[in-house]
Amino acid sequence: MPLTIRDLPREKYVLPGHAACPGCPETIGLRFVGMALGRRAILVVPAGCTSIIQGLMPGSGLAFPIINVAFASADAVASGVAAAKEVIGEDSVVVVWAGDGATADIGFATLSGAAERNENIIHICVDNEAYMNTGIQRSSQTPIGAWTTTTWRGKTEPKKNMPLIMASHGIPYVATASVAYPMDFIEKLRKAASIRGFRYVHLHAPCPIGWRFDPSETIEIARLAIETGIWVLMEVEGGRVTISPPSKPYVDKSRRKPLVEYLRRQGRFREISDELIRELEREIDEYWNLLLKLSS
Amino acid sequence: MKRADLILPLSKPKIGVQGITGSWRIRKPVINYGKCVGCGICWLYCPDSTIEIENAGSRFRVSIDYTYCKGCGICSSVCPVKAIDMVREV
Ligand SMILES: Cc1ncc(C[n+]2csc(CCOP(=O)(O)OP(=O)(O)O)c2C)c(N)n1
Ligand code: SF4
Ligand code: SF4
Ligand code: SF4
Q: Which helix (H) or strand (E) holds B37?
């Protein structure tokens, strides 16, 4: 039976009066983590917006048990916590909750190491496609054509494909998710929690501050990413890709909305050239073709 | 070192860790209960956990905590029947 709103626990893990900007996608995602895993979750959080959202000691705007750690150590710390919990026999789910910079750039060596050792942890990359906490600098997850404070004329390099890079580690579970599709995300997290070994979930998280849109539009923009096909919801298990239900209709290219409907809603793409739009479209087509090959 | 000298950098969950964040609001979400169909979708997406939800038969009754609601407007934009108006605060 598919999940409904009535099935979701109402205990608050994201507390009113936290320090995030209005319309923040990271807090939306954290609420879903709470709904999916509840008291079993232990979070390891490297520097990023979420560490600010927690607020100043001695209070915390998040009600999870959290260990705040240095960037490059997150997955190593989590590996140790998971091993210790196993020794004392505690039923917990150790989750690294890390930004795209912390995941794909600064923390990548440690992430890759923990994945290769198949440590018993879940890594969630909350992907707002730039280093937001320090003022919107580009990351390897910033897409082609996007303005950031370090790519004034639009980024010219493509977004590094983290889900497939992680799948190449041969880990038991890789999934992508979006803040606009909570039931899909929650079901994937619960499934991940039932699997042993290294699990990677990449959560698309449009940020009103860095992407330059009105804070009321976070969910609409996230939905448009799926409907235009620039973000694909899927799972990878045993080397095989399965496209998730919300993305299924868009296997058929003719059903995808034009990419510009997604781009023109965001100030970061205001000055994107036609050439870079075409490059982005080509990249999306290639990615879908690859996914479909891997799913057959 | 004596035990009493140890200060652990531990934080405890606290509502309002950043103060009364309702004061950040420039637009206020107002639910029109005449239109609301009690689907709970606004509760699901609110980034600030400032929408309360209760069961009301097969539907839900939702209400907004204005002490901490930051007025982002996500609830208004996701409402399927446009039952939440954003009203200017000043
Ligand atoms: C080793 C190290 N380098 C740089 C920083 C400064 N720093 C803190 S948060 C941050 C950006 C994090 O970006 P990301 O991981 O994408 O998370 P977001 O802020 O977008 O949530 C940086 C560069 C740091 N804390 N430690
Ligand atoms: S910059 Fe973006 S991700 Fe960071 S707290 Fe603000 S809204 Fe959230
Ligand atoms: S305006 Fe934003 S913070 Fe306020 S209740 Fe609606 S979704 Fe929540
Ligand atoms: S989303 Fe709209 S209709 Fe649904 S409960 Fe909220 S106000 Fe009512």
A: none
Q: Is the pTM of this model over 0.95?
A: yes
CATH number assigned to the domain comprising residue A149:
3.40.50.970
A286 falls within a domain: yes
Q: What are B's interface residues with A at a Cβ cutoff of 8 A?
A: 9-21, 24, 39-41, 43-45, 47-50, 53, 55, 60, 65, 67-74, 76-78, 86
Chain A CB contacts of B74 below 8 Å: 23, 28, 215-216, 218-219
- Whether the CB of A210 sits within 6 Å of ligand 1: no
Residues of B in contact with A62 (CB under 8 A): 13
Strands B27-31 and B84-88: antiparallel
Q: Which residues of A118-139 are buried (b: 16+ CB within 10 A; e: fewer)?
A: ebbbbbbbbbbbbbbbeebbbb
Question: Reduced to 3 states, what is the DSSP secondary structure of residue B55?
Answer: strand
Identify whether A140 is part of a domain: yes
Q: Tell me the domains of chain B and their CATH numbers.
A: 12-88 (3.30.70.20)
Cβ–Cβ contact A164 with B under 8 A: no
Domain membership of residue A7 (yes or no) is no
Is residue A212 pLDDT above 70, yes or no?
yes
Amino acid at A40: R
Give tens-digit pLDDT for A148-204: 999 999 999 999 999 999 999 999 999 999 999 999 999 999 999 999 999 999 999
- Domains contained in chain A, number: 1
